[in-house]
Amino acid sequence: MSAPDVSVVVPVYNTMPYLTRCLDSLVRQTIGLSRMQVVAVDDGSTDRSGTELDRYAARYPGTFTVIHQPNSGGPAGPCNRGLDAATGRYVFFVGADDHLGPEALDRLVTAADAWESDVLLGKVVGVNSRHIYQDIFARNAVDVDLFDSPLPRSLANTKLFRRELLERHGIRYREELRIASDLPFTLEACYRARRISVLADYEFYYAVRRFSATNITYLSRHLERLRTVEANLAYVADLIEPGKRRDAIMVRRFDHEVAKLVEDDLLRLDRESQQAVHDGIGRLVAEHLTEEIADQLGAETRIRFALTRDGSLDDLLAVIRQDAEVGVPATVVEGSRRYAAYPGFRDPARDLPDSCFEVTAVPEWPARLDATGFGWEDDERGERVLTITAYSPLPDLAGAGADPLTVSAEEIPAETVVIARGGAGSTVRIRFRAADLLAGGIATGRRRIVSAQVGSFDPDRALGANSAAGAGGAAALRAPRLDRAVPLVRRRGARLYLLTPTRDESGRLMISVVPITPGRVTARLRQKLRRP
After folding, report:
1. CB 310 within 8 A of CB 356
2. Closest Cα to residue 9, out of 87, 118, 102?
3. 135-139: long-range contacts at Cβ-Cβ below 8 A with a sequence spacing of 24 or more?
4. Residue 329 DSSP one-character state
5. How far apart are alpha carbons 355 and 299 in whole angstroms?
6. How far, in Å, CA of 196 to CA of 150, rounded?
7. I need a surface site. Which of 124, 152, 176, 252 has the fewest CB within 10 A?
């Protein structure tokens, strides 16, 4: 009997009822059951997941291989067990929460064979407002450069891999990593690949955010994430020689994984954990953060990183507290140099270097705004709009280089007008048409981060959800005083949607567009019932 074209590896731990939809999406693949192998590894599930896997194995005995094992604490072990049992020419990893489009495997295998690809990315979309970076999926591409493309921030394992490549180089998941073990696995596969390709003309993979948010990634804690980041940065440094290629990978780790450890929720940790995070990131910054990487980070991120290296924990917490509870600090201008006047700046008791606070070469600094008011209203044309009032401590935005200043919710531009300026700062009125927000959504829902840009609107520079502000001249709006926003209900086709301004865990302003479904309503009621 010939080997299957593709082996699908599914690590499983307590994923009912999502698992059933995942498995259904596999048996309905147009590639046909005879051309695929499903290796499902039950990692000690305590719900009905193991039983559900056995049910599918009994129904499709020539296709399914089910492995039951004691819980290993993370997906790395199950992925390795599945990979060891795989016999297909290609391997594809699927999260048990997620599901595939019906033509996914057929299209991927056909393209990989035609293009002789070792790694092939098919378009991934988020479900239940789960954010997935989309820039790598701008177009179909036969050849993608790992070091000169958006690929470094799309290193999840949801890709087609040539199994011969993995076996030849002995590429496996690092089982000591409870979370994010797919990053070094995918990075090395892409680094060793002769050809990496992208298919963007079909929705191949649906990445699901559970309503309950109970999977291992969502529940991971700061110290565990710190250990994982330390291990992954060391792995990158060992794999790739110093220089521009290593920096291309490192900058994505710093502006996402490392930056998330010094977001506003650090304030809620106990003192011992805060100190461990401060000291650990300080070591990473000293060892791996080159000037070239720092130049690609936003002001908020680079200032916080500098204080892990050059300041104390209290210095870092004071800066975070300023952003989270007060707002954008004033700017000190001295000749051609500019400094962010955060707590600790030129405080003789702190003795912090000015370089920690310098924003001279940070193009997005003048675009930093605090959202201070929200409301739905009718505009001059009678259309429903979300009006946001925002504040900047800069009395002259144009003089500071923010002319024009544009605001967008990712690819959706807003009407932006400076309505007051003077010694107390500047006030900006921002308006999003409800119709634009709704038209830009997808059936499964989407959250967009709101950001301001220096210069005319450019969708390629607008911040995506979970992005850090960068050197492109865009900065996320913060909403330190947003408590409870009123949603707007709108119909699109046969479905009702909620449009809501909200705030993420780091205090950034988001606009959420989600369908009103029975499951979402039930989940929201459960959350309310759990509240004290």
Report:
1. yes
2. 87
3. 135/460, 135/464, 136/198, 137/198, 137/200, 138/200, 139/198, 139/200
4. P
5. 12
6. 13
7. 176
Quick one: which of 366, 359, 262, 273 has its CA closest to 316?
262
pLDDT of residue 219: 40
Helices and strands (DSSP H and E) totals, the chain: 15, 23
Query: 59, exposed or middle or buried, with CB in 10 Å at 0-12, 13-18, 19+?
Result: exposed
Helix/strand/coil (H/E/C) assignment for every residue in 202-269: CCCEEEECCCCCCCHHHHCCHHHHHHHHHHHHHHHHHHCCCCHHHHHHHHHHHHHHHHHHHCHHHHHC
- For 459, counting Cβ atoms within 10 Å of its Cβ (0-12 exposed, 13-18 middle, 19+ buried), the class is exposed
- What is d(CA 495, CA 445) in angstroms, rounded to the nearest whole number? 11
Write down the pLDDT at residue 196: 98
- Phi–psi pair at 495, nearest 5 degrees: -115, 150
Distances (CA, A) of 302 to 17, 321, 423, 519: 42, 16, 28, 40
In the chain, the percentage of residues whose pLDDT exceeds 90 is: 75
pLDDT of 31 strictly over 50? yes
| Rounded Cα gap, residues 64 and 59, in angstroms | 9
Sign of CA dihedral 264, 471, 284, 282: negative
Two structure tokens written together for 71: 């819980």
Phi, psi (rounded to 5 degrees) for 204: -80, -40
- Token pair for 421: 């300026």
461-475: average pLDDT: 56
Q: What's the rounded mean pLDDT across residues 290-314? A: 95
Residue 518: the pLDDT is: 62
